[in-house]
Amino acid sequence: MISRVDSNKQRKKRHVRVRGKISGTTARPRLCVYRSLSNIYAQLIDDEKGVTICSASSTEKAFEQYGGNRAAAKLVGETVARRALEKGCRAVVFDRSGYIYTGRVKELADGARAAGLEF
């Protein structure tokens, strides 16, 4: 019998490994990304205090289009960057949560950079 590799289990292993090396501080919070099949979410997290500074997702009421494509990811990146700049956070640490840096994850990062975040 051929056994198939569980890609989400492998992603979680990568995420745990990376989270052992990076963490968000007050000066540089962590920009954490989560993507599902139909939506994408981003949070700015201060791990020292254990608080979420701001967040954005494609499930918000103001967001009117389909949330599972690259255009939506770029808008979510721009939104979270705008909210972070309002809170005074300019530099962040990017946490891709074990996802491969391509497609929607890359578009979210590009949108956040274009809106003024530095990472």
Q: Main sheet, how many strands, which sense, barrel?
A: 4 strands, mixed
**Helix and strand succession?**
HEEEHEH
> Poorly predicted ranges (pLDDT <50, ≥5 residues)?
none
Radius of gyration: 15 Å
Q: What's the average pLDDT?
A: 95
Strand order of the largest sheet: 3-2-1-4
Shape: globular
End-to-end CA span: 45 Å
Count every helix, treating DSSP H or I runs of 4 or more residues as helices: 3
Oligomer: single chain
In terms of DSSP E residues, the strand content is 15-25%
Helix/strand structural class = alpha+beta
Count of strand segments: 4
Tell me roughly what share of residues is in helical segments: 25-40%
Question: Short description, anyone?
Answer:
The protein has about 120 residues and is an alpha+beta fold. The protein has helices spanning about 5-20, 70-85, 105-115, and strands at about 30-35, 40-45, 50-55, 95.
Task: Please explain how this structure is put together.
- The protein has 119 residues and is an alpha+beta fold.
- The protein is 35% helix and 19% strand.
- The chain contains 3 helices and 4 strands.
- It has helices at residues 7-19, 70-87, 104-114, and strands at residues 30-35, 40-46, 51-57, 93-95.
- The protein has a 4-stranded mixed sheet, with helices on one face.
- It is globular, with a radius of gyration of 15 Å.
- It starts with 6 loop residues before the first helix and ends in a 5-residue tail after the last helix.
- The model has no long low-confidence stretch (mean pLDDT 95).
